[in-house]
Amino acid sequence: MTEFLLILIIALAVYGFVLNKSKANALSEVNIMHSQPHYHGLYSAFMTLVPAIILLISWSFIVNIITNITLKEFFSDVTDSGLVRFYTDGVIAYVEGSSDRIIDHVGFLPAVEHYQSLQYNNKILQFIVVLTLTLMFFRYSLKFVEVQFKARDYIEKVVVFVMRASAIFAIFVTIGIVMSLLFETLRFFDSVNVFDFLFGLHWSPQMAIRADQVGSSGSFGAVPVFTGTLLIAFIAMAVAAPIGMFSAIYLSQYASDKVRNYAKPIIEILAGIPTVVYGFFAVITVAPFFRDMGAFLSFTNMSSESALIAGSVLGIMIIPFVASLTDDALTAVPRSLKEGSLAMGATLSETTKQVIIPASFHGIVGSFLLAFSRAIGETMIVVMAAGFAANLTFNPFDSVSTVTVQIVGLLTGDQEFDSPKTLSAFALAFVLFFITLVLNVISLTIVKRYREQYE
Amino acid sequence: MNSVSLRNKKEKRFQMYGMTAVIVAISFLGILLFNIFSTGISAFKQTYVAVNLNIPLDINKSEINPRAELNKSFLKMFPEIQSRTERRAALSLLSKGARYEFEELLDENEGKSIEGYHWFLASADLDMYIKGTVKRQGDTAGRIDENQMKFVDQLESKNLIELQSNKYLLSSADSREPEMAGIRGAIIGSLYSILIAFLVSFPLAVMAAVYLEKIASKNRFSDLIETNINNLAAVPSIVFGLLGLAIFLNFFELPRSAPLVGGLTLALMTLPTIVIAARAAIKSVPPSIEEAAIGMGASKVQTIFGFTLPLAMPGILTGTIIGIAQAIGETAPLLMIGMVAFVVDVPGGPMDASTALPVQIYLWADSPERAFTERTSAAIMVLLTFLILLNLTAIYLRKKLEKKW
Lengths: 455, 405
Prior knowledge:
The complex is a heterodimer of chains A (455) and B (405). Chain A is an all-alpha fold and 455 residues long.
């Protein structure tokens, strides 16, 4: 019935468009109109469609809420809110025919009956109300085809409004991220102290199933997770910084145009390869390689999930970030500085080291910070190559865990809602979001300020 | 330091460092691709075993129990079999999927007799031995023990084992049996997600970009939106996954594991990338064209839709394709919204439970079954092919359509 209603409304809008346009067309043959005929057509179509769709969406939203509240009444003796939701979902699924499971509860059949009658009344009411209203708007929109009528202005107002709303949508995404993380994080801090979380030295989120089990309380000291993240990110930077920076220097200062035109995109391919591919590469190639190396050097206490493996593969992934951003910084240095130095007899390497790098230092630092923030937030490589056990260590041969590994581990598979274990993932994500945001703001500011210096 | 030759040596050394760095970076890419390619290429072939069938014309085919009949025919090829263990060892060389192939064969030959040798899917263990993934040690190879090896040798000496092209890999969905597992379900899931991500993020991003570039006056508010979008571009993808989990699953109660939710989450993630690219493209349209339009009496909105956007479209599309390519390879946010389930059906719509191609790669890479390794690489090859095609399109668009003003 809703589909039929939608088709009807759309047909009405199209009809309005055609009607108004042809009317305006006829008018425009003898008059000079303010708006072109198709704007008059669009005016009618908008007037028919927009209110109808707004009404339909808010209608279904309100009906949803009413349904939920009234259905819950039938299961008022059940205390577990998750179970109530399971029951109400069961009722809806049963009525809609997607399941034929009858739940063993006294309230079920009355609830089904109630929901059926609610659905039926709702559909009839919706059809009548929405259609009447749309017809009124449709009639109304037909009246305005006149020489002086500014149909275009109205249409453009709507278009600009949509554009502004799209731009503001980005802010809502950020607010959504902050809100969704913040709420769960605050709930997590109801059961775990903030300081225990930020400064505790022991991380083992596994909660006991029974309350009396030995070692039942999970501990949520996140320091080992943070140090593990930092360790892996630093190893990654140790790989990416020298390679990225030296390639940028070579490509911007030494390489011929031909080499540059080929080498730069090839290096950038590294950034386009999905991270899950790097993770697989780490597991099947890099891990055995390090194991053999370890055996060759008779170095036996290396973990198969060591920080070194994840870190070095992560490093390969962020080479292009360092390389291309450093390259931008180096090429932005005014030619006059470089040529001045060369004219004084300095070699190109001396010029690079003593003039170009100092002059682009901010940009290079900014690129390192951005790459570092990438390394911290990267998920798949560490999920596949690093371990889940969070050890407090700075030994690169040990297995460590990262923030992202913990989030994935805690939120995939079986999860009970509202347990500190699940909520701790949101707290970790909040920390991650905050840190990457700060790093990003700092590096963008540095890069921007430095760029202005030479403009 | 003072002598010129010393300085020249230093110069040479510095240049060497740079060149080495470039070569190292490129060779990393080479090693990575070579590794994936060399392990994955074998997955496009699949081991088949020939079974001598003899099903006469007069048997009503609907009365045949396909599994029992196939097993009977297979065992007839080894008249020396006595014990139950031997029988089981021989039958374990055939895949569990062989009976479905047999059923198909029966359907195709309705009303005809079936005679002679027909090829049937071999088990993953035999497949790995034939491909050389596991090496033979005496009379065993990997999970193939002495009992089974006896029959393998017999079949091989009669040329009844053959590598044929793998029709399961691209045409079926996931399966517990490695030899029957395919990526079709994952590809369809990915396509649905990407389609939804594109449909949601492209119009939103283009509208937002137009607003920021052409309509908004420079003030604090537009600055706020701008910084906001730049920062969103650097938010770790997993955080978008948590956003999707909190908003789409917990608040709007959309179904878990559905490509619809995956697509919406990816849309939020690609939005900033497309906005940034679209703004750059819009900025590069020369103001003279817009001024000419306005001078001719067009309104601002007419100028934008009539001139600015069409002229900026190649650049916008290039940026969009790059953003979409990123989204295709993204795994972490999809894990958060539950697209990691084991799904054996090819999804029929965006609301059906499904995985995506990168998630399938993650699932297979995680599987303890060794036979999945080559299939993981093969799936990666398919994914990379998609990405290469997308990027080539982007490069083509940039080269052919973008005008230099």
